[in-house]
Amino acid sequence: MEKTVGIIGAGIAGMATGIRLANKGYEVTIFDGNDYPGGKLTELRLGKYRFDAGPSLFTMPDYVDELFRISKKDPKNHFSYKQLPNTANYFFDDGISLQASANPQLLAAELEAKLGEPTANTLAALKHSSFLYDHLADLFIHRSLHDVKTFFNRQAFKAYKVLHKLDLFRTMHAANRQRFAKDKTTQLFNRYATYNGSSPYLTPATMNIIPHLEFGVGAFIPEKGMHQITESLFKLAKESGAEFRFNSPVEKINLKSGQVTGLRVNDQDHPFDNIVSNMDMVATYKRLLPGTKAPARLLNQPKSSSALIFYWGIKKNFKELDLHNIFFSGDYQKEFDHIFSKADIYADPTVYVNITSKEVSGDAPAGCENWFVMINVPHNSGQDWELLKVRAKEHILTKLSGILKTDIAELIEEEAVLDPISIESKTSSSQGALYGNSSNNRFAAFLRHPNKSRRVKNLYFCGGSVHPGGGIPLCLSSAKIVASHFPDLH
């Protein structure tokens, strides 16, 4: 008899796990409390504007392509994307702006011409990022850190030989400040800490692995926007045999003698041999496993940052803007101190503006743009978010209007807002933290929940709150790690 798997959550990690297990011969059912798939990776429509509601950067596309290949499909026939020539446009308060080419040589030349940063420094930083990826990705991204075999193989010993070069004991900022001659270059490379919701002044320098994803592998955009990832995986999961049940919030993981027996959904019990939770790890224990001893140390770890997002339909085209745009804070350290020490929003936040209409036709009316405007904010710990949203909007508009020399408020014809409270309610992310536990200490990688439960037999975890972490590539990697625990039934 075919073994059954119940998956909690139809986010991309849940769908990817379903695809992998269905291809191994398992009978897969995916439950979600929402009436749509994708979790954070969904879309929003306001009038004539379409927005990608969540993640806006696409790297490591092979992680998506691989799901089609294991399903015996040519990914080119089902999922299309293109590589971006520029990773982002950067703006500073003093009027300096940069167009960051995805080509390392062109980027280095731009930083030297605009900032005075020696070309050799930028190229050395990117070379080091590639070195970190080459030696650490297999250990910390592709394998389970909770399996002893991970630490006794060729790749592991390769890393051990260069342990002194892996920058385990400094912060990202300390490493970047020593590497670069100019503060603006340091700030630009410090920004990559936000890719996992951390502070560059606290997270270890090993996180300088992240630039390699953009400059070594590339930054991409799906042909129809980020939501195309969700649409493609949803279709593939159904074609692979996975069944979806929407408007079906899971109420409890049923156990007997320390082993899963199924799920309770809408007051009905559904038997399953295996359970995979794509729900936030904290919510899984607190809501679905009452009475089960939880790993208190992991549950109590400091949470990552969250986001405050304004979706604005803008009645103008801005030629100086690209798909990804960063308007830097004048004091980066104060900004992160407010987020992680004061649980507050700094008056001069770094503003990220994503405009998919630059690449995706139809996302905004002619002569207009769809602005996804985001700032990093603390996770919810009881702040007055209504007041914070009003203040933050004022600060964002002041900053953007000043740098772009245009009154942005007058151009907004559509608006929606997403804050940490609504992020938590829509995605079950504990306290609205986007990446689960923060990576603000050198042991953070080891303080993520394993993908296979040590306490409950046949219970597994995937998604951004567990190993290896948040963001699209790591969520997809978590699905692959979970599936590796299951034998092929064919």
Task: Describe, in plain words, how this protein is organized in 3D.
The structure is a single chain. The protein has 490 residues and is an alpha/beta fold. Helix content is 33%, strand content 20%. The chain contains 15 helices and 20 strands. The chain has a seven-stranded mixed beta sheet. The chain has a five-stranded parallel beta sheet with strand order 10-2-1-14-20, with helices on one face. The protein has a three-stranded antiparallel beta sheet with strand order 5-9-6. Strand 12 (259-265) and strand 13 (268-271) form a beta hairpin. Helix 3 crosses helix 4, helix 4 (119-142) crosses helix 8 and helix 6 (172-179) packs antiparallel against helix 7 (183-190). The chain is globular and about 65 Å long. It starts with a strand and ends in a 6-residue tail after the last helix. The mean pLDDT is 92.
